[in-house]
Write a structure and sequence with these properties.
124 residues; alpha+beta; three-stranded antiparallel beta sheet; two-stranded antiparallel ribbon; 3 helices; 5 strands; 40% helix
């Protein structure tokens, strides 16, 4: 699969490269193996199987998420140069925050919890 970097700036590409060089993919992979955390894959019968991805597949998925998120940020900044909020994407356990200053945060969530305001009787 070839990714479209046409809307990714040089600074954004540096952020992507930094994540790809520094993120602990081995730790993610080991957790996925130990918990049998599978991602859906189509097989030759056109059915879906859950399989633990290998490190190459994990890296490829994260790189695609980063390129997609930075592309969205570039398009957003073209329409609104003063944008102040991040682009958020998540899939397969990963969460990516891409910021207008061309930096990003990447998380692999094993567990989390977020309490909505409505639990406390407040309007959202």
């Amino acid at each position: 699969m070839t990714l479209d970097y046409s809307k990714v700036t040089d600074r954004q590409r540096l952020s992507i490269d930094d994540v790809m060089d520094s993120f602990d993919f081995e730790k993610v992979y080991q957790h996925m193996v130990n918990t049998n955390w599978g991602w859906g894959k189509h097989n030759s019968n056109d059915t879906m199987n859950l399989e633990v991805p290998d490190i190459f597949e994990i890296k490829s998925a994260l790189r695609k998420m980063l390129v997609d998120a930075f592309t969205k940020m570039t398009i957003l900044k073209e329409d609104n140069p003063n944008v102040e909020y991040p682009i958020f994407q998540s899939c397969g356990g990963f969460a990516v925050y891409v910021y207008p200053n061309d930096t990003c945060e990447v998380y692999f969530y094993v567990t989390s919890w977020w309490t909505e305001d409505y639990i406390f009787g407040e309007n959202i």
